[in-house]
Task: structure prediction
Amino acid sequence: MQKLIIKGGKRLRGEISLQGCKNSALPIIAASLLCGEDCTLHNCPELTDVYSAARILNCLGCRCGFSGNTVMVDSSEVTGTEIPEVLMREMRSSIIFMGAMLGRMGECTVSVPGGCELGPRPIDMHLAAMRKMGVDIREGGGRIICRAAGGRAKGAKINLSFPSVGATENIILCAVTADGETVVNNAAREPEICDLCGFLRACGARISGDGESRIVIEGQLKLTGCEYSIMPDRIAGATYLSMTAASGGEIILKNACVQDMEPFLTVLEQTGCSIYTGGQNIYLRSGPRLRAVPDRIRTMPHPGFPTDAQAVLMAALTVADGTSVFEENIFDCRYRHTDALVKMGADIQVLGKVAVVKGVSALSGACVEATDLRGGAAMAAAALAAEGTSEITRICHIDRGYEKFEESIKAIGGEICRV
Ligand code: EPZ
Result:
């Protein structure tokens, strides 16, 4: 099993060009199934989750070719309607293929998806929405068998009880080729939803309201292929900024979508870092010591503070002056990284959804195990700020979401290697 060795204590300084966004690449790859023609996707990150999505397309009969950050998908032929359980378990986003398969084939057989263990991650909202769109769903023996009446889903009015990102994506994917109009109320407003809709519109879909709480989709009989460039990854951006801030360093983040990162940048600025933005660049300079964030950091659906950036910011605040308080409102179990940070000398008390982080004067290197994707990245951020050497095992979690992780960190002067 591979591990990362990190020698900490250096001030990070340099430039990183941000990778393409994992959380929009995955639904967009699923969406390419709907086109029935060639699609070319640029700025697609090279990640294990992206390869898992390609394997799912392959097993449905589509062809995928990779050339660096460009992915070509030919979905002209589809030969299957079932995703084997082993592929479903590789990542949470496998469930997004449900909407795409219903949209293309009118039926599918899937199972409960895998992904990061962040507490219970039900799919009840996905299933309820599909049922509302005229899909008959039978569950048994671990399989979920879905069939749209008459082979085509029907437009419907769907009110989500929570703005779930995945459920919103599944509804959109099913609705773009459904019969009639679909309205999603209380839809997720994450930038990745807009990216998915941007791709679908380039394929001829009729969608309006993405980025707002009410999305309207007018079903079309057929979509076409297209060429599309995936947006930059705001969470990878938050990760490299947090790492640099924790080290007292300086960074230029290139190819960033500044507006999408505002909810994170607003909080990071409160730590005393100087942040300047211009075009697609973010410049950050950190003083020798960060300050604690005075207000409670509450994770919320977009445009609130993103849950995916909670762990990496926490890593930086372990070495800030004063006490910061986090409140995790999206997932029940998203503090699994805190034990590793405490092992490195952090002072963190977790009580339910609240974590109280008292800044310490320094962290020290330790051997830790990545618990999940963002938790693993937080451990790397802490290790870079710590005195001495750290080892991080189970880095398969990190590889699911960060492209060229060590190269990026080396580019800003971090001492890191994979063995
Ligand atoms: C997406 O997960 C992201 N994953 C997550 O990023 C991200 O943390 C999350 O949205 C929130 O922003 C991808 O895009 C691949 P949700 P998703 O449905 O779609 C509950 C990362 O680190 N819920 O918005 O699974 C659910 O349990 C990952 O890159 C139901 O109860 O998130 C959770 O508490 C991790 N029933 C909340 O809603 C449902 O049917 C938000 O989940 C669906 C969700």
Observations:
- The two ends are 9 Å apart (CA to CA).
- The chain has 14 helices and 25 strands.
